[in-house]
Structures are given as structure tokens and as C-alpha cells.
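Recall that a protein's primary structure is simply its ordered list of amino acids. Everything else, from secondary elements to tertiary packing, is in principle encoded there. The following example makes that idea concrete.
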Amino acid sequence: MDESEVPKSGYDWSGAGMRWMAGMLALAAYALAGYALVDLVRPDAGYFSVSFAILQPAVLCAFAAWMGDPHFRRESRYYLRVPAYLMIGMWAISIPVLKEGTICVIMLSPIWLASGAAGTLLLRRMRRKLGDGAPANRMHALGIAALPLVIFPLEMALPTPEADYRVERSVIIDASPKAIWPLMRGMKRIAEDEGAFNFSQDIAGLPRPLEAELEGEGVGARREGFWEKGIRFAEVVDRWEVHREIGWVFDFGDSAGWEFTDAHLNPGSKHMQIRRGGYRLERLAGGKQRLTLHTDYTARTHLNSYAALWGELFLGDISENLLETIRQRAEAQS
């Protein structure tokens, strides 16, 4: 059927209420079944998988679009709006009901919109090409609906890809190494008006660092980090050059406070491990210094490249906030 032949009016609303109720119940049951399957089989990395993060939103959005247009009388913009509507519903259910962290939901939202739109547009194309009553169309629909649930166990049986990443940020400071070095070692209480505004901490809600205390001197010393929401963790110094460099290995063995988000974003989990970090100071012309902070981490998901984009944003924002705090304090002292 050509698009020009699709009628735009005369919508039959008979039985719409019962149809919508049954459809939404089926949609919710399907979504919860997928969530339960992931939580049962691979709670550590399953949420960042092709079957759950990409295929399932496409199926859910296509089904919802069909429920809202059973006689195929709506225009293409309707099919593009459905993923956004369902994403709002996903937020409303995932955070208060399923207790998923806001950060994890934010990370999955762009994939949801893209794959959901692909699913609804594919549905529209199939309906135009095959017609709603065609047996082939019904077989396609059943096959697509079963695809995520069939692929997920197969995908999780494969080895989880592992990749190492480094996030690095720098700041230019108009101060001497003597003024900067104590701040590289540790910082006393960070005030709310210090640092820099950023998306990750001021909008998405990641906790801000509060202070860092160094216990001991040189290699083997420990830095204790304290953040908002009761977060604390340790860093064991493994590189030490006065006025030049301090580096550490993260130790989350006795850390606390990560309950603010879901388990998938714990920095010591199987899903993600933040391993090393450190400051490096370089002398520049005119008495200025370049201070660089790096963080190394390992990701183990089936969507490592996508997860790394968020790692670059979140860890980068945290690094820039710390560097700006050091710059402000060092230049104020100078």
C-alpha cells in the first residue's frame, strides 16, 4: 500500500480501552521478563549487551506503536515519537520501582531512543510492504519479538570483551610547583563553590569529592578519599617524585557509599574496574605549570566502546572539577 493511499481519518475507537489495557499489560510483562532474565543470568554486565540495550527497546517500541495504530492510519512522525514516550515511562519505572541508578538509566537512554526509532520505523515499513493481515507479517512480528530473549542467553555464553581505557585532563596553573605539590598530595575540605560546574556532578548527580588525606610519605603511602553521599575509598601510592608526580593504585576493598547508584557502576565490580590514577606536573614558560590528572580503568561489557564514551564524560568531569579546585587554591596562595 502506498503512503498516499493510507486513510488519515475515520479511526475506529471501538474496544480501544480494552485493547490498550491488554497491550500495556503484555508490554510490561515482556519488559519485566527481559529484565528478570538479565538479572538472573548476568547481573554484572548483561544490561550493557546487544540483546538487552539494543534489541529489546526496538521490540518494545514497535509493539507500543502497533498498539497505538492498529489500523495503520498514523503518519511517520507518530512512529518517531513513540520511543520518547516509552523512554519517559522507562525512567518512571526503572528508578523508583526497579531501583536502578539514575546514571545507568541516563547511559542507556540514547541507545533506547535510537534502537526504539529503528524498531518503530521498521514496523511501519513492514506494514506498508506486507499489509497487516499477511501471514508473513505475523511470522515476522513473532520472530522479532522473540529475538532478544533468544539471543541474550547465547550472547552471555560468549566471553565478555575486556578493554582498557585512560581518561586524562589538564589545567594550566599560574603558580609555582611548591604551591601546587601539597594539593597534589591531598586537599582539605572542598567547599561547594570551589571547582567547576559540569554535567556529571551538577546535573546527572554524581557525588563530588570532599577531601583527600595522605597518610605517610613516598611509595607505599595511602591517600584516603572522601566524597559526598558517604563515599570513601583508598589509593596506594606507587609513584612519587616531589614537585613532579604522584601516582596510585585504587583500593576499593574497604570502600563504602556506592549504594547511591546501581551495582553495575561500582568502580570495583566485574563490570568496571577503576585501577590507577595520578597527577603529573610539567613546567611551562613564564613560571606557569601544566597539571595533568589521569585515570585508568577496565571495562568488561558487550558494549565497551559505547560505555567508554560515558567513562570519558563522567571521569573527565570529575577530573576537571578536581583540577580546577587545585588551580583556584594554588593561584590564591601565590
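Residues 304-333 form the longest helix (30 residues). Strands lie at 162-173, 209-215, 222-227, 232-241, 245-256, 272-283, 289-300.
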